[in-house]
Amino acid sequence: MRCTNPANLVTFCALLWISNPVLAQGLETRMQPGADCEVCKEFLSRFYNSLLTRGIDFSVDTIEKELISFCLDAKGKENRLCYYLGATKDAATKILGEVTRPVSVHMPTVKICERLKKMDSQICELKEEIGLGIRGPMEDESRRTEADSAKLGGRVQGLCRKK
């Protein structure tokens, strides 16, 4: 088939885009399985483990107070997650109940983050910062995306230019 008419070309490309599930899903397909919601999963796992180690009562009210105090120490992407959840003072919305109720019944953090993703997709768009260390979190080539590699390359170039 030859697409000489621009309208036919646009129609052909649109059909190709829709019929290909990899293209239709967008950037999420570039990430490795399990890399979705990495900040949410890691943060809520640390929060849940801190509740267990300190022997905190798993009531909804207690968990909410503990989450708010846990978010006071959060920095960077974790602070942004707390903002999306409504656990910061300047948050516009408050969906803490969507975290505290599942945590109170010991629901896995992966499932909690999946539910949060349905409510607010920004929660799972947060990614950990790229590390330059020898054993940094992004040293595993299989987990690194093209954007991460570009950021890392820019940092390395910046370091080389300074010397």
Automatic annotation (TrEMBL):
Q: Which domain of life is it from?
A: Eukaryota
- Lineage of the species this protein comes from: Eukaryota, Metazoa, Chordata, Craniata, Vertebrata
UniProt keyword annotations, A-Z: Signal
Output the InterPro entries linked to this UniProt entry. Answer: ARMET-like, ARMET_N
Annotated PANTHER family: ARMET-LIKE PROTEIN, CEREBRAL DOPAMINE NEUROTROPHIC FACTOR
UniProt protein name: Cerebral dopamine neurotrophic factor isoform X2
Q: Which residues form the ARMET N-terminal domain?
A: 36-129
Q: Where is the signal peptide?
A: 1-24
